[in-house]
Amino acid sequence: MSRHKARTGDGAAWLVSDRAEPAGFHCYWYTGRAEDHLVEHEHVVGETDAVAWGRARTPRVRIRTADTHSAWAGSAPRPAGIDLTWINPSVLEGVTSC
After folding, report:
1. How high does pLDDT run on average in the chain?
2. Which of 4, 33, 57, 60 is the most exposed place for a label (fewest CB within 10 A)?
3. Dihedral angle computed from the Cα positions of residues 89, 95, 97 and 98, in that order, rounded to the nearest 10 degrees
């Protein structure tokens, strides 16, 4: 997609819920000094698979879910401006609140 050479660990991944297909995510991997070079894009079905896609490329992963919340899903320290941390939905299966 881009002539910019990317290495695993570079840049940031942005995962955006697909409004036309609620289970789908548009996954973007940006690199470069200002993270302004799109080096890869893919459409992935499933929130967990989208996060895995991003984490396979970089430790800096942001996800925007269907409920329009943005959360940090990366393993790098969370940047300023993102207050939520993504939690794998499968971890919450079977958990009930009191």
Report:
1. 88
2. 33
3. -170
d(CA 60, CA 79): 9
CA distance 25 to 39: 17
pTM of this prediction? Answer: 0.84
Residues 62-73: tens digit of each pLDDT: 999 888 889 999
